Amino acid sequence: MPRDLRPPVDILHYEIVQEQASALGRMGRTLEQALTRLREFDATHASADTPAAIQPARRKLVMEAGQALWMFVVQREATGLRDTRHIMRTYNVPAEVQRCMGLAPPSSKPVSK
After folding, report:
1. What is the mean pLDDT of the chain?
2. I want to staple 76 with a disulfide (CB 3.0 to 4.6 A). Which of 16, 80, 81, 91 is the partner?
3. What is the pTM assigned to this prediction?
4. 110 in a structural domain
């Protein structure tokens, strides 16, 4: 069995970079899926007379996409990629999703004192 002759620090750095790339890919796919669910919802409910009863469902999808966007942006920034304009253009992120980025989802449990 051949022995790896690289210094241990190089091997560790390589594994860290691999994990960063893998996490970045997962976060990108999660964002794509969230945006797809939102776009499909909008396409299904495209009428101008959207009933108020479905607005909470849409708001939930917007918040999920905003959370996925936030996670992706943070992961990119952790790897040194700081320009978010590229993400917004490439993934065609709606402005309302951008505004929800980083917001904590509302808790369904009452706050105890």
Report:
1. 86
2. 81
3. 0.79
4. no
Q: What is the C-alpha to C-alpha distance for residues 70 and 27, in angstroms, rounded to an integer?
A: 9
Copy the structure tokens of residue 45: 């409910």
93 vs 90: CA distance, rounded Å = 8
Average pLDDT, stretch 8-30? Answer: 87
Angle at 46 between CA 42 and CA 50, to 5 degrees: 95
Q: What is the DSSP letter of 98?
A: H
- Please tell me the predicted confidence (pLDDT) of residue 11: 81
**Does residue 65 fall inside a structural domain?**
yes
In a domain, 80, yes or no: yes
How many CB atoms are located within 10 Å of the residue 41 CB? Answer: 16
Quick: pLDDT tens for 56-94. Answer: 999 999 999 999 999 999 999 988 889 999 999 999 999
Domain encompassing residue 70? 8-45+54-100
Ramachandran region of residue 47, left (φ > 0), alpha (ψ -120 to 50) or beta?
beta
